[in-house]
Each structure stands twice: as C-alpha cells, then as structure tokens.
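User: Sequence recovery, please. Input:
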C-alpha cells in the first residue's frame, strides 16, 4: 500500500506503508511528517480530506488532528467516495501499467510508482480538486447513488 496527498499547490511524497496501518502508525508515519507540514505550506485555509477507515478515525488520530489544529473535512460514514485522490490512484495505476514488462519485484514497482507520482502534471491534479463542487452536486442530485465521477 502507498499513501500520498495532493493539493492544488503541492503533492506530498509518496509513502510506502509496510504491513497494517494502525492509528498510531498513521499519526506517526503519515500525519506528523507528511500531512501537517504540507498543510502548513499551503496556509491557514488548507482543508485536510481523508476517508473513514478505522486507522484514520481512531481516538489517538482525532486527538492529534485537534492538537495540530488541522482543518479536517468531515465525511459521513458510508458516504460515496468523492475524494479526488481516488482518481489520482487511477491515473497512477494507468501510468505504471504502461511500463513493459511488468515490474520484476516490489522494489521496482515502488520505484515506478514514485517516478509516475512525481510525473503527474499539476494541471491534472488541479482539475481533480476543482471538480469537487460538481462531484458533490451530482452526488446530491443522485441521492448518493452512482455519478459520472
């Protein structure tokens, strides 16, 4: 598993998560070293959007988010996944699949993922993020059902 963050201004480094991601690991390996500095670089209007797996919603993580004064976008449980990062993962997958032959091992796969992550144009990411309003409008219009996104 890899983790990465995007905004209209920057991308975090792509982080390889080895093993199971717990709330403590999420806080220590992702939030503290990657998310908080990225949000600080963006500025006081930055909003952190993550999703609802248990490690992201643990008591320790929620406390850390509050103490770090992270402005977190709240998502209701069982909501449709409108997060633009999902489309970034699709793009990353398409880019890696263009390599032939397939990666020989995990190390090569991680190398290609990082290379392609770094190569995704900022304009592509900005388009994803700027589509959030329309994603939400369509989701509401379809009562939370399937949308073109």
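Assistant: Recovered sequence (149 residues):
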């Amino acid at each position: 598993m890899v983790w990465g963050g995007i905004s209209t201004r920057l991308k975090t480094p792509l982080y390889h998560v080895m093993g199971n991601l717990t709330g403590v690991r999420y806080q220590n390996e992702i939030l503290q070293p990657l998310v908080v500095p990225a949000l600080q670089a963006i500025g006081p209007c930055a909003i952190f959007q993550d999703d609802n797996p248990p490690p992201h919603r643990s008591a320790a993580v929620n406390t850390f988010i509050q103490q770090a004064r992270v402005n977190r976008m709240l998502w209701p449980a069982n909501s449709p996944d409108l997060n633009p990062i999902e489309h970034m993962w699709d793009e990353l997958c398409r880019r890696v699949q263009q390599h032939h032959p397939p990666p020989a091992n995990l190390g090569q796969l991680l190398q290609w993922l990082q290379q392609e992550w770094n190569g995704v144009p900022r304009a592509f990411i900005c388009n994803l993020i700027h589509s959030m309003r329309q994603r939400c409008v369509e989701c509401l219009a379809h009562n939370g059902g399937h949308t073109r996104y």
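The mean pLDDT is 92.
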